[in-house]
Specification:
The complex is a heterodimer. Chain A is α+β, with helices and mostly antiparallel strands. Helices cover 29% and strands 19% of the residues of chain A. Chain A starts with 13 loop residues before the first helix and ends in a 19-residue tail after the last strand. Classes of the chains: A alpha+beta, B mainly alpha.
Chain lengths: 263, 210
């Protein structure tokens, strides 16, 4: 469960490395056709070896990849079926202990004080008053045991309980024709999601984990739980929610993770 | 099944039609990008007790590798559909790869090991070749299907269940990658042994009379 950080790659003298390798191979291989073949494949191999720095660091390539990522957002929005539910599991299938994951280590988990906590609601909503935890607990609650899939590839099954986000959005009179719902968190994390996913029946404002109030490491006082999206799209320690038509990205999304991040 | 000297009756047409050459190299490019970036993605959460040396991977960090992977997947899928569609509808699939049986594959494999397999007619695939190419087609199809489950496990629910769930699909995806890499390794050795096959995949050269 390590945290992904962007790695800075040191430059390699590509041409010199390839030239030397070519020389080594040429000396050993006698037949001209085989030599030519090996030289060509070596160039291809060398290209793939060095691509981590020489191709990825090119600004044009980065821009093209970012554009394809936007295209993939659209493709996922098109594939998303609001009536399709993520599979649910039994209590016995819950992963114990459920892994901790954030952009910081477990020793840096933010402690949010319940007494002073107010959830701010802004943007395209009718009712902008702040919410206390007691207000949220007074709304109808739902439980779900679903699979959390991390962008790193691993997955774990957990049990979350809380308010259906769709119910909450309707209660505050959100304009559900808006494109995005954004989140600001007490740990300085931020992200945003598409409205169809926000209204999905399995999208929860989670207040509990495994029947207990959400512990700090899982996002006290409240996190957004979406079994239809990857882990980094599920913000913890949420302190503000806004409804908007303006794209606001996210902490990882701004660094290159796909924005839709759906599963 | 390949010992009789071939007759040079095909002269005039290129050994590999243009669409085969184009789709072959586009596929090679897509596979190179997908495998190298896939290795970086695997390294983020390895499920075997090893990681792939990062010098061999593409993307620099997980986010970069994912961008490459989810870009090249479109090339692999679109190019693969063109290839399989053309192969099927032109009749090339049946003409080039069939008939085929375990006995004939075994026969040609033994002949190959004894150095008795003829490569005189590059238009004719021996039965080991037929098997290997059909195998890699099926392997890539399974890579795409398991990849769809990893990308969209909720949206492709039926496919997810057919492939044994999200976690099992990860293992399938990895195993198919390993088999694909093994195929490529053998393929490159074979091309090095019969360099003419590389030339016929590169240009529209006509085969000379034997």
């Amino acid at each position: 469960m390590k945290i992904q950080t962007r790695r800075i790659l040191t430059g390699i003298d590509t041409d010199a490395a390839l030239a030397e390798a070519r020389k080594l191979v040429t000396r050993r291989v006698e037949q001209p056709a085989r030599r030519a073949f090996l030289q060509r494949s070596l160039t291809l191999g060398g290209l793939s070896l060095l691509s981590g720095c020489s191709i990825s660091d090119n600004a044009g390539v980065e821009a093209a990849l970012a554009r394809i990522s936007r295209f993939n957002d659209a493709a996922q929005g098109w594939l998303f079926d609001p009536n399709r539910m993520a599979p649910t599991y039994s209590d016995a299938e819950i992963t114990r202990p459920f892994p901790f994951n954030a952009y910081y280590g477990e020793d840096e988990v933010r402690i949010v004080d319940e007494a002073g906590y107010r959830l701010e609601v802004t943007g395209m909503v009718a009712d902008k008053r702040s919410w206390t935890l007691a207000d949220l607990r007074a709304m109808p609650q739902q439980d779900q045991i679903t699979r959390h899939i991390c962008v790193e590839g691993w997955s774990a099954i957990g049990k979350w309980g809380g308010v259906r986000f769709g119910d909450f959005l309707r209660r505050i009179g959100a304009d559900t024709s808006a494109k995005y719902v954004g989140f600001k968190c007490a740990d300085d994390y931020y992200t945003s999601i598409d409205m169809p996913t926000a209204l999905h029946p399995q999208t929860l404002l989670a207040l509990t984990y495994d029947g207990q109030p959400l512990p700090p490491k899982y996002g006290f006082p409240m996190k957004l739980r979406m079994p239809t999206k990857l882990g980094y799209k599920n913000p913890k320690h949420i302190k503000a929610i806004f409804v908007t038509n303006t794209y606001t990205g996210g902490y990882w999304e701004d660094q290159g993770y796909n924005w839709f991040g759906g599963s | 099944m390949n010992q009789t000297p071939p007759t040079p009756r095909h002269t005039g047409r290129p050994v590999q039609p243009l669409w085969v050459r184009l789709t072959h190299w586009l596929n090679a490019l897509a596979v190179l990008v997908l495998v190298a970036s896939g290795w970086r993605i695997y390294n983020a959460a390895p499920f075997f007790p090893f990681t792939i040396p990062k010098e061999l991977t593409l993307g620099g960090w997980l986010g970069g590798a994912l961008q490459w992977h989810f870009a090249a997947m479109w090339l692999l899928a679109a190019n693969g559909l063109v290839y399989l569609g053309s192969n099927l509808f032109s009749g090339r699939l049946f003409k080039k790869f069939f008939p085929l049986s375990p006995a004939s594959i075994w026969h040609d494999a033994l002949a190959a090991l004894r150095g008795q397999l003829s490569h005189a007619d590059p238009r004719h695939y021996n039965h080991v070749q037929r098997f290997a190419y059909l195998f890699v087609m099926a392997d890539i199809v399974l890579l795409v299907l398991s990849g769809l489950v990893l990308w969209k496990s909720v949206q492709f629910g039926l496919l997810r269940e057919l492939l044994g769930g999200y976690e099992f699909a990860r293992r399938i995806h990895f195993a198919c990658m390993a088999l694909l890499v093994a195929f490529v390794a053998v393929h490159l050795v074979m091309v090095a042994l019969v360099p003419r096959s590389l030339l016929s995949m590169l240009s529209a050269q006509k085969e000379k009379s034997v």
